[in-house]
UniProtKB/TrEMBL annotation:
GO terms for cellular component: endomembrane system. The keyword Lyase does not apply. It is a multi-pass membrane protein. GO terms for molecular function: mannosyltransferase activity. Keywords: Endoplasmic reticulum, Glycosyltransferase, Membrane, Transferase, Transmembrane, Transmembrane helix. This is 4-amino-4-deoxy-L-arabinose transferase. It comes from the Bacteria. The keyword Endoplasmic reticulum applies. It is found in: Endomembrane system; Endoplasmic reticulum membrane. The chain crosses the membrane at residues 25-45, 104-124, 131-150, 179-209, 221-245, 265-287, 294-311, 317-338, 350-367.
Amino acid sequence: MTTNADVAPDLAVKVRAFAERCHPLGVLLLLAVAVRLPLAFWPNINHPDEIFQYLEPAWRLLGHDGIVTWEWRDGIRSWFLPTLFAGPVVLGDRLAPGGAGAFIVPRAAVGLASLSIVVSAWFFGARVSRMHAIVAALVAAIWFEIVYFAPHTLSEPLTTALIAPAALLLTGDLSWKRLAVGGALLALAFVWRFQYAPAMAVFALGACWRQWRNAIPLVSGGLLVLALAAMVDVAYGVAPFEWLILNIEQNLLHDRASEFGVAPAMAYLYELLIIWSGATLLLLCALRRGWRHAPLLIVAAVVNIAFHSAIQHKEYRFIFLSVVLLIIAAALGSADWGQMLRARPAWRRWALPIIAGGWVLLSLGLADTTKLMQDNWMRGTGAARLAADLRADPELCGLALYVTSYHLLPGSERLARGEPLYAFHPEDPLATGRLPVLVKKNEQAFNRIIAPPSSASELPADFSQRSCASMGDDGIACIFARSGACDATSATPFEINDVLVRLNY
């Protein structure tokens, strides 16, 4: 007969044997996947670009209609990333038709791509000690800002997933192979987000500073990738890197981005202080020690913040690379404290759990303590609920947006299920001052409207209010519905892409 006393030692032996067989990096990667993949299903949106600059163009590449923003009309975007997203988009649409899968699978793919940050952090730490490797990889796996941005289909997290391993390859013991691969990764990162070029230059110069011949393999690897990017441009009928020249002309010379908001030079430092709050001093102390192990990470992070601080239009996502590099450097510095504890016999076995547990508690504590982070987790979820209601509506045959911005909406297919989409915007030159009249005049083209509840009296009388949801800073929006079909032959100048052209949005 087996007793509890027999089972307990046997279980302990099995646990130890399992732990010995499992490499810590593998366990940390599984942990990273476990905290990232569920967020692919959480329908929050950090910024409209993740839909309208990447997923919506990818959807159009597959032969569907979609919303076309001014960036694509003016040719300031490369088709490289939308082309890559087309694969996950079509896979997701086949797995879960109706728009949801085409949103989830690309997010899951981007989340998995962020695992390169975890691997890079491990090997940065492994240059010092096993404890440094474990702490650095753990922090990269669970730090709330990295986890938050991981599934968002934006250029910043994707580019950071390239720059982190490039930084690893271009520091430490260099070889021609490491230099060539590192140069290729930096070139690809440049194509995806050229605004990170100053930070990338820190690693390129660091690799070549003492031995300028290292520039040969580094540049060679980069040129191969740039040639591939040029071929992608040619395949879409545009001159190689024409989008880059137009982007610089529009955003850096004509400052077009400032139309979407400006902030003072110190805004990023202020935002970091808000998000890290009481942990800021602790992180700075850890960074001071981390300088000994990875100074170029800190230099590149500071250069990136300084460059983006000089640009008037600011968004926190722009310095995501800096956040990642600083957090990895701080994790490396904190592992020094763990080694100090380990040097004391009484604390030897508790050193790693204390440091690792401290990072976990710190990350959990900061993840939802500020209004800024709370808003980040919830932004776009209300629009997603309205979109889900519309996709499940069998009578939907046309949808209009009334005094409601498209920015937080999840793309035309996930919103209107491929049905015609119209917009009545107060700044539209054709509609200024006449919105109530025009929406009533054109109501036969649609049978569903998304509008603020305060606008109910301006809508046609046969539309009644249904479900409502928060649109964040834009207030509440509701679905208004009427019975009956739509007149597919009804010509109206308020199709959403026509409106965006007039608004230059």
